[in-house]
Amino acid sequence: MKRWFLVGLVILVSAFLYAGGKQEKEQPAEKSGFEGQTIVVKLSPDMAMSGLKGVTEQFEKDYGVTVDYNEIGWDVWFPQQAQILATDEPLDVMGNGKNAWIEFPDKLTPLTDIFPEMFAEMVPELVEYSTLRGEVMGVPFLPSYQIMFYNKTLFEEAGADIPETWDEFLVTLKKLNDYNGNYNYVADWTTENFFLNFILTMQSAGVEEYNWVDGKLVFNFDDPGTVETVKFMKSLLDQDLIDPGVLVQLQQEVSSLFDQGDIAMMAMWEMYAGFLTDEQFKNTGYFAFPGREKGMTGTLDGHEYLLIPKSAENPELAAEYIKYIASYENTKARSITDKSIPVYSTQFKDQEIIDALPYLPVIDLVKKNLADQFPPITSTYELRLETAKQVHPALLGEVSIEKALAALQAFADAQEAVPQ
To answer: Which of 135, 179, 301, 315 could be disulfide-bonded to 158 (CB atoms 3.0-4.6 Å)?
Structure first.
């Protein structure tokens, strides 16, 4: 009798807790304390991807608030975000890369004590990336790495092998080009993005982009391995293996060509798998960027974070919004739907996520050979432009590689370093 009484009591209490929990979930606005308040959110479409607007609208309903939500293309957002921070423009939540806290560390709210539980459950390396001088400056929301995509059908029909070295890459590319008469590898070497492919290839040559030596930041653009890097990139043009228009083709054009089946390989952020058609997604394989020697590879991070500027007019609601959209459930849905890398450690053991992301083994390999697209200087954007300005002419044979890299090294040496 006592046993059944206890069972009944447990059922009754469980039902009460469930009903209470359900009621709280359905009516959080009554208890949120934020009813009628507003925040302003600005971020890139990459960070937003397909579902963030819908999640934001649900947040508004759940909390009884208004979110002035803005997605801004990177061509406009990159300079605009710098202006916002420099001028203390009111903004509650900013989606940005690590350049924000490198260039404007005093303009951002440290988040270490605001999201301790969240950071404790997130991938440690992502939290480490977002840390400056012991303070976590951003909530990791869109981790991203560059890897190689390949068209399985074209590789099979052309009898092409997955290359592991630069020499093998040239052989594979020539075989593919001869098979269908196309240029089968296109990368974004435009003025702004050339730097990304340049330092990725440097890393695959075994050359670190920079080092700290006795507390001083030292770039390695004049390293012999960097000379070999440019020689390799130049050989692709000299041997007519890639389209001469590579200097003006944006990554969106590159991914479109791949999705249409017009090219067999591309170096791209892994999240672009989420933009492929279902048919092409099933026909796509992934491998690590080939190295100067077997065993070498490289990648770079395109991580984006959620930040709270010190100019925020409603930082409390901003923090609540970040907690909401960066929850385990919401980030898991992004991984499955948008093919984005998980941000919580246990998500890498979630079979639904594993099944949705076939490139995860490649990510595990390449991220150990990471180049930094936002080196610790106050002028990362200017360095990007200068890299293209100096190295493009060398690729076209207008100046010597050594002269171009010496000029780039001199420019880098003159930049203001940010102590870490």
So the answer is: 179
